[in-house]
Amino acid sequence: MITVDDIVHIIQQEAGEDALRLSGAGEGDINEPIRFTVRTRIAWLVVNLGATMLSASVVGLFQGEIARFALLAALMPIVSALGGNAGTQTLAVVVRALATNQLTSSNTLRMLAREFQIALCNGGALGLVGAVGSYVILGNLQLSIVFAIAMVINSIVAGLVGVIVPVALDKANVDPAVSSAVFVTTATDVMGFFSFLGLASLWGLGG
Amino acid sequence: MITVDDIVHIIQQEAGEDALRLSGAGEGDINEPIRFTVRTRIAWLVVNLGATMLSASVVGLFQGEIARFALLAALMPIVSALGGNAGTQTLAVVVRALATNQLTSSNTLRMLAREFQIALCNGGALGLVGAVGSYVILGNLQLSIVFAIAMVINSIVAGLVGVIVPVALDKANVDPAVSSAVFVTTATDVMGFFSFLGLASLWGLGG
Q: Where does it mainly reside (chains A, B) (predicted)?
């Protein structure tokens, strides 16, 4: 006999396990010996450390610009964080659509087009807010324009990568719910830093 | 009659909905009009934009140091990202432990002590890897030591905040699964930047 209580219990467990797997926190047993927990969690932290070194090396390319104009270093985490958040939203939608068979090869292109439009709207709106806000606070028009354009670009990267990564992993028979996030946030970090610092460099900010 | 298929279907839906709520992506209906999706998602992106501006203003405090030593800007996202990942792991464990009533006021202190020890181990190990790696690549011993200490500090912040935030939200009858992440990652971003740039400044790096 399966009771409603059993179902509620399973659902709670499953939902919790999903968050645990996503974060690389293993089983999440709060009573296991600490050395087991340390070992489980560190693997995922090392993977992420490696991924972050990629984006750090992108920042390293623009040391000259940053040295001449240190405000770039203050604004660049905003661009990468917006991309990370937008990418995680797209990812959640796509992973669910894959799991419920709503997203198949027949409508993947439509999904890409849809996320592109959403990214354009949200990136545009937040870019505008960011540009106006940064102009009011910092008073550098050129910097604010570069900031806004980079936010639009990274929002679009987030939308596209948020569809392409889980679809590709699903095709390769890898569970997209577990492994997508690190690829998506690495892409949005790298592209966030690169688009913002690259545009700033092109336009002679910090030149 | 409840069939096994029904249960599997509910579990898949619930797990997906959890990821959707966590990311602020609403219902995740891939067929709703785009303007609805834009409106749902943008609210969460704006909240996160506000949170990121906090950490950006911390970086802004250290513009002088960054201008004199731009490598700081390349390493600081690694410190904040490690904290974000470690905090998310602790969060996943604590949210599950709260949902399954394994974590109560009687063992919260024990949980804090546990996460502190895990953070010390993982932060220490990754700090060591980071220090050796950055020394091999950049050859600046003082920078590598500051980098390692900041990683340990931020790892500990992540472990403590990852327990305190969801427990406090739960006490205030707010669903910790939905709202904890933005507080935890804001804390690890702010403390990651502050500890790394602050120590660098104290020790005269970029001075």
A: membrane
CA distance A81 to A150: 12
Substitution target in A1, A40, A46, A52 with the highest count of B β-carbons within 10 Å is: A52
**If we measure between CA atoms, which residue out of B91, B189, B25 comes closest to residue A86?**
B25
Which of B46, B85, B96 has its CB closest to that of A45?
Answer: B85
d(CA B93, CA B99): 10
| CATH number, position A67 | 1.10.357.20
| Class of residue A124 by CB neighbours under 10 A (exposed 0-12, middle 13-18, buried 19+) | middle
**B21 domain residue, yes or no:** no
**pLDDT tens string A144-170:** 999 999 999 999 999 999 999 999 999
Cross-chain Cβ contact A42/B66 below 8 Å: no
Residues of A in contact with B73 (CB under 8 A): 59, 63, 66, 70, 72-73, 76
> B7 lies in a domain?
no
Total structural domains within chain A: 1
8 Å CB contact between B45 and A82: yes
Q: Is A6 left (phi over 0), alpha (psi -120 to 50) or beta?
A: alpha
**Domain region containing B128:** 54-202
Q: What is the pLDDT of residues B158-194, one digit of tens each?
A: 999 999 999 999 999 998 887 898 899 999 999 999 9
